[in-house]
Structure formats: structure tokens, C-alpha cells
Amino acid sequence: MLSLFRPKTLLARTARSLTALSLGALMAAASSISAFAQGVPVVRDAEIEALVRDYARPIFKAAGLSNAGIQIILVNDNSFNAFVAGRRLFINTGALVQAETPNEIIGVIAHECGHLAGGHQEKLREQLERAKTMAIVAGLLGAGALVAGGATNNRALAGAGIGLATGGGEVATRSLLSYQRGEEITADRSAITYLDATGQSGRGMLKTFQRFQSALSLSGAQIDQYRISHPMPRERISNLQELVEKSQYKDKTDSAALRQRHDMMRVKIAAYTQGQAEVSRLNRKLSDGLAVKYGDAQVAFLFGNPASALSKTDGLIKAQPKNPYFQELRGDILMKSNRSKDAATAYAKAISLDPAKSGLLSVSYAQALIATGSPETLKKAVAQINNSLQRDRENSSAYRYLAQAYGELGDVANAELATAEGYYYSGSLKDAKIFAMRAQKNFKRGEPAWLRAQDIINSGPAKKK
Q1: DSSP secondary structure of 112-170
Q2: What residue ranges do the domains of the chain occupy?
Q3: What's the pLDDT at 56?
């Protein structure tokens, strides 16, 4: 099931947009590249994460990033955008819904990989320091000239001092933005290289930038080309057009199976984030009948009758019996209908069919097991969640269910430690330490659980990989 939540800690986005940014804003944004921001709305969903990873895997390999530990984060934002920070690639749900083909998202991923492989974030930090130095030196020179002009009653010199003091920051900002525009062009070229290496077309990437150009034209905004961090859309499209036309894969299209998965992802996100009207609008544009039926089933589950939703989902399962996410939806519907035992069976089937082995499905299965309430199923739920956390350590909601299972089993110490872990990974460090101290009192000094509690007690903000 698609989950939306706002963790209290998540990497802030870098200063990369189509709008003009002051030097101060750029400095602040750069300093937050490795910092944590509040309230970023994150989407977790086994189906969507598996599909986006499938899009990214060959691109990561072509860019030499397969072993770089790049994590993909889905952001609940309706705008078409993606960005990188540290070893994370953020993709807005708006981009996933608006992209009509997988190739468009693959092109976006390829571009962002160009930034990651090129080390652009580290280089940007260096440029920011250089720009900061330029601004400071200009300010000092201007102040010196202003003082000298005042001391000698030389108005021309004093005026020049004011100009230096006020203009130095502008020069530094323009220099920095020029550097960023160069990085964007480099990332575009790298993206085409990765797409060629994986036998994929660059037309999707080209369509994305054409969308940006259209949006900019419709806005009527007057943009100073020297005060933006990206190349002008027209210039960018012209450069990309030339590169795409040279590729032997320019006319390569996505497979029918991949397009179907893409469309099912789009209707699912639309159902959860934008409601019934958006799903209806999207369904009218889709040519894949199964994706349309999937959208109808999602709407029935979220806004309609559980019996109708179950009937629609059973029809989907009949069409694709090996699709794990149809079984997951069946489990979600049964849980909503208070049929936890049947839901557990559906989730277990989803896990057995899931090639990605998502820990999220294991947590859903554990929720159903907890709802049945027997000691046997509670112990099984604990095992399922702990197994999930081995693959997805930072899943804060999983710790909440783990704490519930331990609590119902009467294991207070582990329940409090799981609660501490959940608070820790959601960024509520004060609460994490309180529960860690409570848990630690019930463990033997030096044993693994005691040491983990001590780590939380001694910790600063949760460090992400």
C-alpha cells in the first residue's frame, strides 16, 4: 500500500531551479546538502519503488554508480522535478504521474546520474566558497575605497567604493550561476551517453525539457538568462536535439510490459495523492485496459465499497495471477474490511511473488498477523518485521508495528527499544533517547540490545548512508 508521511529529518534539496537565486540563498542551500530539513513528504510503496529501481539500475551501471549506494527517495509533490543530494536521488511523484512514458523518467534519472557521476555537488561546494571569497574581497575593496574617498574628499573614489561594495556580490552570483549552467549542460551530455550505453532513446529526456519550455512560455515570465542556474530551455533543447538525432537508438521505444507497469504506477499515485477526479482524467488518456482497471480498483478501495474493490481486484488477479501488487491490494482491502486472517494470506502470497523482495510487503504482512492477536502470529510478526528491517533499516513505521507486537507479547524492554528506534529514524531524537533509557534498564549491561540503546542515548541526529 502506498504510504505518505512527513519524516522530521530528510535531506534538503540542493539549489537548482529555473528561478534566479541570490548568492546568500545559494550558500544556504549548499550548506543544507548534507543537513536535514523538516517535513519533507515522502512516499513509500513497494510497487513504485521496484519500478523506479528497474528504471535506474542500467543507468547506474552505465554511470559507474552501481556500487555507490545510491538511494532513491520518492517525494509527494505534484511538480515535475528531480534532484540529488549526497548519495540520494529524489524524484517527485508529480514527475512520475506526468511522464507519459517510462523513457521520460529514465531520461530524468540519467540526467541526475550525470550530476552524481560528475561529482557536481562537491565541485559546487568549492565554487560556492570561491564565490563567497569573491564577494567578501569585493566588499573589503569597496569599503577601503569608500573610506579613502571620504578621507580625501574624493567623491569619485567614494562612489567607486560603493559600486565595488554593492556590485561584488552580483559578480560572484553571476559567476556561480554560470558555473551551474555549465554543469547542467555536462549532465545532459552524460545522460545521452548513459542512454546510448543502455540502448535507450533520448527522446523522453528531450520531451521533458520541451515540457519545461512550454510551461515557461505559458507563464509569461521574463527570465534574465544570466541569473538562472540552468541553461535557457530553447538552448538546452537545441543542444539535446542534436545529440539525440545522432544516436542509433533515437527511435527505440519502451516495451509494452514496461509501459503497462508505468501506467499502473501513474494511476496508483493519482488515486492516493490527487483523488478520484484525477484518476478518471488519467484513465481517459490511457490505452492499456489493465491499467485503467487498476485505477478503478484503487479508487474503489480508497473511496468506494470494499466489496466492489475486492471484486475488481480479483478480476485483476485473474488477468495477472503472478502480479504481487494485485495481491498486496487484495490484502489492503481485506484489512480495511477487518478480515486480518485473509489479509495475511494475501500479503504472504504477494511476498512469495515479489521479485524485488521489498521489506514493505513484509511489514504489511506483519500488520495483518498482529491484528489476529494470537501469540503464535505475534511472534511471526516480530520475525517478519526484523527481517524487513535488515533490508530497510530506516523504515521508522516498521518499528512502530514491531513495538506493538513486542508489547502484546509482554516484552516491554524490546517494545521500548523498538519505539526508540522508530523515533530515532523519524528524527525525534529527544523522544528516542527517553525510550532508549527506559529500555536499557531492562537489558543486561553489554548485551547487543543494551549497546544499541546506548548508541541512541549517545547519538546526534540520525546519520543516513
Answers
A1: HHHHHHTTHHHHHHHHHHHHHHHHHHHHHHHHHHHHHHHHHT-HHHHHHHHHHHHHHHH
A2: 1-252
A3: 97
